[in-house]
Amino acid sequence: MRSRTEKKRDAWWTVLLVDPVATPLVRWTAMWTRITPNQITWAALLLGLGAAACFVQGEWQWLVIGAVVYHVSFIFDCMDGKLARLTGKGSEFGGWLDYIFDRIRVLICAVALMGGQYEQTGNVAFVWLAVAVVFLDALRYLDALQIFKVRQAMRTKLQAAANEAAAVTSEGTTPAQPTAAQRAEEEDEASDEALTGEPVVPALGKVTQESFLRRFTRYSRIRDFLISHRIRTHLISGIEFQMAVFIIAPLTNAIMGVTIGAGIGLLLFELAIIYKLMLSTRDFERVMARYRRTIDGAGSNPAVPSQTDASAPMSTSA
Question: Which domain holds residue 118?
């Protein structure tokens, strides 16, 4: 059941606080109802709007209710994908709908939460905080999508170069194959969830991680430990950022402090991912240059003629 519904790797908030509730609910839903994944997606949006209606009141008791409703909304948001995987009723339109509704929910809840605090305090900083929340959420997902595409492109080019190098040399060597943990990290480190419907190109191992792993020797142990517990290495992603802003901040009645702290944490993790991507692109260029030298060298040193040429009839003189 869990293998069919839960992702192999997910945000720690989802693994620890959502899956224990969502997975049994999905099983019950699949067995006893005719509810579709898209209907759950709509329910998640409506609950998100309900949370926003609570947030806009501004008073702490309403903030607490809004935080609880938002978490229920997020549980529903996780259930639609699980139900789709379990029943096979997922669709491309459903994936688009889920993604768009998530962004709408963040936008409306950010405006409601910060607008309610502005009405309560008259502090214009809350207006700017709403803009910052929407901006950081959009930045995170746009950056994730672009990083995903860049890594896909690098893997595709490396595979093509490896195949060409193997075809023109007798060794037939290919890049070092990755461990299970490396494959796991490469497949989803850029995204909070499946950002596109494109298949993941198989990872090519350490060739685009050498520089990063050399500089941060303890990273592999931390990564392997987290992945063994289904937790992604991106510990402050878009999901954790949303939960901090719309659940932890209202519950603690520390809207500004928690939101600013979560925003800084998100930016630091984004910078770390961008830094790792920069090192990966350097490793990528180095490995591609090596393949090009191999291919060019084989082209400029054609094989010595053998049996066919040696067995050709020799000319004779009269």
Answer: 2-298
Structural domains in the chain (count): 1
Asked whether the whole model's pTM tops 0.85, one would answer no
Q: Which residue matches tokens 């305090």?
A: 121
pLDDT tens digits for 121-178?
Answer: 999 999 999 999 999 999 998 888 898 888 888 888 888 888 888 887 765 455 555 5
| CB 7, CB 22: distance < 8 Å | no
On whether residue 317 sits in a domain, the answer given is no
Q: Note whether residue 312 is domain-resident.
A: no
The answer to whether position 306 is within a domain reads no
Rounded distance between C-alpha atoms, residue 145 and residue 238, angstroms: 12
Would 310 be classed as within a structural domain?
no
Q: Which CATH number goes with the domain that contains 85?
A: 1.20.120.1760
Confidence of residue 304 (pLDDT cuts 50, 70, 90): very low
The predicted-structure confidence for 183-225, as pLDDT tens digits, reads as follows 555 555 555 544 444 444 444 445 567 788 888 888 889 988 9
